[in-house]
Write a structure and sequence with these properties.
single chain, about 180 residues, alpha/beta, five-stranded mixed β-sheet, 7 helices
Length: about 180
Amino acid sequence: MDAFEQLIATLLRRNGFWTWTSFKVDLRPADKAAIGKMTTPRPEIDVLAYSPTANEVLAVECKSFLNSRGVVFQNGEFWKASTYKMFSDAKLRDTILKATKRQLVSRGLCDAETRITLGLATGKIAKSTDRETLRSHFNSHGWRLFDDEWIRKQVRDLADSQYENDVAYMVAKLLHSGKKASS
């Protein structure tokens, strides 16, 4: 969902990242062979976010799930692993992240020392037990989780920030001003 990806990109920019949405990854024939899919189209990373100060690139998959059950993560696995290929398939993940870094370095957008970190942004997690096990799993893999709690806090913080000509800022400020008036 483009709107959710744009929101996540806005929140990451506010946290010091430069962002690129819908980043297409160029795979070489050897990459496609490594994942066993010679005819695969170019994979897309929902939000690519670069922190110059940390020399880190986040490859963030976005799953809003606002009108659904949310992310289900139990017994160390995602329910419907095919929805979370980058997190569930190590060979695919390693191949795509290496190709992403190679592409960024060749374009002069980062250097060989830049760390690439996988991330998930989600608007809803099914249950508190899913949240706890998901956080633990992500921490153990060095991945980043931007869950609904993080997103809500970031949006609330937008309401108190300087004006920006951005939909997320406008909505946050409108909702916040409505709460002040009704108090």
